[in-house]
Every structure is written in structure tokens, then in C-alpha cells.
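pinned: reference chain
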Amino acid sequence: MRGFSIKQHDFNPGLFDELKTDHYAKDLWPIVYILSDNTIKEAYVGETTDTYARMNSHLKSSSKKRLTSVHLIGSPKFNKSATLDIESNLIKYLSGDGNFKLLNGNLGLANHNYYQKPDVYWHLFKSIWDELRTEGLARHSLEHIDNSDLFKYSPYKSLRYEQVTALQVMLKGILNEQCKTVLMEGGAGTGKTILAIFLFKLLATDSEDFNYGDFGDQELEFLELVEQIKIKYPKLKMGFVVPMSSFRATMKQVFKNIKGLKASMVIGPAAVSREKFDILIVDEAHRLRRRKSIGAYIGAFNKAAIRLGLDPNEANELEWVTLQSGKTILFYDENQSIKPSDVDKGEFKKLKANPKTIVEKLRSQFRVLGGNDYVDFIDKLMQCKLPETTGTFNSKAYEFVLFDSVGQLVSEIKQRDKECGLSRTVAGFSWDWLSNKEGQEHVKDIKIGDTELKWNAVTEDWINSANAVNEVGCIHTTQGYDLNYAGIIFGHEISYDKESHRIVIKKEHYKDSTGRQTDSAEQLKEYIVNIYKTMMLRGIKGTYLYACDPDLRDYLANYIPLHRSEPEIPQVQFLQLEEVIPYENAIPVYHLDAAAGEFGENQKVSELDWVKPPKFLRVTQDHFACRIIGESMNKVIPNGSYAVFKRYQGGARGGQIVLVEYTDLQDSEFGSCYTVKEYQSKKSVSEDGWEHESIILKPLSTHSDYQDIVIREDQIAQFRVIGTFECVLT
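pinned: its C-alpha cells
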């Protein structure tokens, strides 16, 4: 038994006769359902405790009665909280999957905790998703969807409290006759783009597609505001303005796959000059341009300005969007302005001072797992404002590492890409882009010591291009995007002056010809520092750095943990037998290549080696040490080192490093039936509880050739956890 059922029915009035035999429907159990049509590729996800009434209502709906199939998902484990949660996850992941366009509005998505949510119901949802893939309702794995732009920028997301407050401010600003502009300020990773798309979808969705009544007064307030806007603008005309062409192409793909939105709604600033809009929402507004160092774009810029009756020499794109819209919503971060062509921040200050402008700030970090602490650290690091006593950055949630080898950095990024996808190497513009010239496609642009690398071969949506992991991107191909891991090469154009304790710029090494055309050396420094800060806020899980300049590398090493290419094997202190007081000043060492059968049993004290335990360890008779041979766990346990374990006495072990005995396995590195790996398990749910489907023993290695060991259900009897890892002996 899987612990759930998915039953498919034709979606027509004959459905009600079939429901008479459905246990979950006739007994008013909470269920989740998917209405769909495989021809028009549309779907609707919902949950209910009254299947009859809800299906009857949907059959009367002009948009839903066109759908032809309904899948009813039921489980004895379902309760109201669980079905709201599973409904929310289905909406998010089906939207990101792209197989169907969803009719759902983007209100009413549950984001609350409840009993056994992470332990039971997430496993249940994953099993339901696998079954939906079997039945053809879903195409991609959850892991694949997590890395997709369609999922990352989906409007079907639960907003955080700060975002909800900002959304209310924007809706009220649109209704406020005294307000012309709403300026949403927020740093990289504060959720500006998601909020912008959410707002756009909210205003573009028919009211009948909202979920009513699930979340009380707050939802009703939103619905009332939206209704008032639609009364005020009965034929609402909106545009979603994205200044950067590469990111604009990505947003067009996102809009294309969302019901109610179209790719043509995503426009560049020049297109704004051709028509009027009720509302313009501008993402990445700090990248709006002025007529300075804009290269080939100068002709189109001049025409757009003249079309609006403006002097091209004085006009800028910020002026265009405010002229052409009744209401303008700007998402802005002055610290992400990176070129002299960007509208001067002074223009935004004037706008903020205007009484017809409402200013709201987003402060919470949603992208990087290091949170606001990491963002603040990066800001002070690049301004040289960290006290000397700060020490190196330390976070259990975020991997921030300085490399002494650029080749090793690139290798690690490729390994992270194999493990979790969306890991890319990016660099400052310190090398000419030679490979973009005809006949030079195979030229290596970047040479650092023995390492040779190539700039990005494409400019639009480079992050998702086929060969991106083998290339190096720049700020122009990464700004606006999320990565799991970012490997950043600080080029020769940025250094550190030890005497003045300041970041310094070497303009002669900066190869962005338009970026060099600044009004002053300080302005150039501001742009380049902004570039590196922006790139260092791309990585969700981690950021790896390499600095070409030795002085800068020395400065960074004061505050960033160093990656060691060859980890040192810790030295342990063995004790003479006469010194040993068992389990007081010593713990035993077992030799895995010699042990067999019952682990550690029937061995005399005199036959064992004894080592001094670490000072912090409260020693018990369950503690022991083993020497770990091989590279399969070298991210945590260096080859040849001694590791301390505690005998396993039961309890949860998921995600822990364990020493296991498996009688049908001979680990070649240990030469025995024992191995050390990270423990994971895949479970199946039934009416009687949980059962293991399989156990996965994962290596944690910098070498990609180590594979997971999968122990299937019929092999689990030969499997035994001996101990859980405590630490490496030093």
C-alpha cells in the first residue's frame, strides 16, 4: 500500500454516479484534485472536503467546464492542513513543470507548518508526484523543476510577511489618486522579481479563479483591492519592463508558460515609447539607461526620445516609463548599478523626493542561504569596513570559500553542477572577448597560470545554455539570475592597497570599453565593486572565490575560509597500554580491514590500539575510532585520517554519516564488508505506517567517480548501522 490513491474520472455530469463508490468523496474526506485537458493543455488544482459540491461548482464555471478529466487524490493520512499544503505544492510544481498552464489564481497558497509536515507529508507529496509522472500529468523530476526559471520566477509562490506588506502597499498605491509612482527598494536576493511577477499575474487573473475563504481576512482584503483596481481600470493595459535583453528573453519564456500572461507583455524600455499604459511594472530599474556609453543602441535611443518629444541628450529611460504610464511600479537597487549608461542614482533620489512617489523597502534576504548576515558581510568586506578581529566567515547554512587555485575552483563548480545543477563560473571583465569574433570561436579568452578558459558563447539566457558549465560568464549574463553555486574570479582590474586599507581599481586592466567611460575614478570603482557584490549574491547555496591579484587575495584570506587542495591528515596521539584507562583517557581503534562478523566483539583490550579522544568529547563506552582509507568521504573525512564514531543505539539517522556493515558488500577501499557513507532512505507510506523502499549510502567526495550505494528493500536484512560519525581525530 502506498498510503494514497489517485483515481481518474471523466469530468462531466456522469462523474457524480461514479463518486457514489468513492470512499473519500462520499464520506466527506479532505481530498486534493486536478482538473485537466490534455488537448488544450490547461489544468486546475484544488482541495475540498465536499467533492460533490466542488465538482458541481466547477462544471458551471465557464473556464473549468472545458476541462475533460479529473484526478482525485485521497489518503487516510489527509487532514485540512495536509491537503492545503499538497494543493500548494502541486500548484507550484505543476506550474514549474510546464506540461499544463494553470487556471489557478495566485492567492490562497498555504505556507504554514503543521504536525509531521516535513517528516511525513513531504515524502507523501513526492510519492504522489512520481505517480502523476507515471500517469502523464507531470513530466519532470522535482529536482529538475527546482532549478528551472519557470519555477524560480513562478507567481504561484507563498509570499513572506514582508512581501505581503509590500504587495498591499503597491495595490493601495495604484488606487491612490495622489500617487504616481511606487518605488520598491531592495538588495539582491530580496525577492523583487518574484514580487513583480506576482503583482502582474494578480492583476491579470480573473477573479473567479481565486481560492476564496481559505486564509481569512487577509485574503479578502487583497481580493477587495484587486476588485477596486479592475473597476478603476476596466480594460487594464499593463507592461512588464525588463531593461537587460538577456534577462528579458528569460522573462518572456516565463510569461509564455503562465495562463493569462503572454510573452508580448514583457517589453524593453524603447517599446514603451510607442504606446501608453495604465500600469508599467519595471524590474531591475537600476539598469534603465541614459544616453551615455550605449554603443549601437544610440540610434534606437534617439528615435524613442524624439518620439516622446524629448531631447535625446537629456532624456533617460526612467523618464520614458513614467511619462508613458498612469502608474509606475519600480523595483530598484542602487547597489546593482554597474555601468555609466545606467540612469544616475541622483535621478532616483529626485523621484523618491517627489510627493507623488511612495517608497517601500524590502530588507529580508530570500535567495542566499547565508541570509542577511552574509549580505552584510559582503558589503563590509568590499568597503574594507570589517574589523581586523572579525575572523573568517562561518555559516553552517552557506559555503563561502577562497581558493588558491583557479583550476580547482572551476573543478569544484563543475562538481557542484553535477550534484545539484545551476553552478557556474563568472568573472570580472578583465580579459578581452576574443572568441566572439568570426573564426575565433575556439580561442581561450582567459589565461591564468596554466588554466585557460573561454567567455560565454551566447549572451541570451547563458545560465541555461548547454555548455555554460564549461564557460565563464560575466555580470551581463548573470544579473537577475539565481545560481546554486557561483564561482567568481576577481580579475586583474581589482586590487587592494595594504597601506591605505582600500580596494583599488587598475583601469588599464578593465576591458569593458563602455564601462570605462565614467566621469571619475571613484565612479568606476563604485561600478566595479557593485559588479562583484552583485555576483557574490547570485549563489543560493555557496560562493567560491579566486583573486588574480596577490594583494587582494591576501586581504580576502583574512576573512574568508581557505580551500586546501590537499587536506592535511590530522595526527593522532596513540597511547601505550600502561597509559590507557579505557573510556576515560582513551578510546579503542578498530581496524576495518581486519574486523569481521560481530563488530568489535571478542577482541581483548591488549589486542586493540588506543588513542586519546578530543578534549571536547564526553567519552562513553560507546565511543570508538576507525581509520578511514580512500577518497570517497574526503569532503569531511580526509583519506587516511582517524574518525570517532558512537555505537548506534537506534533513532533517526537520515543525513548523518554512518559506519555500516553490509554482508553482501565488499568496499574496495576498506577491504571489508564495512563502509562509511552519508545515510539517506526512501520510504513508502501505507495505512500501517512507513517502510523502507531503499537505503542510499552517499559518498561525499571531490571526485565525481564515486557512486551512491543503493540497498533495496530485499537486501535490508543484510544491512546494519554500526555507529554514527562524531568527528575526525586531531
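why pinned: The chain has 20 helices and 29 strands. The two ends are 49 Å apart (CA to CA).
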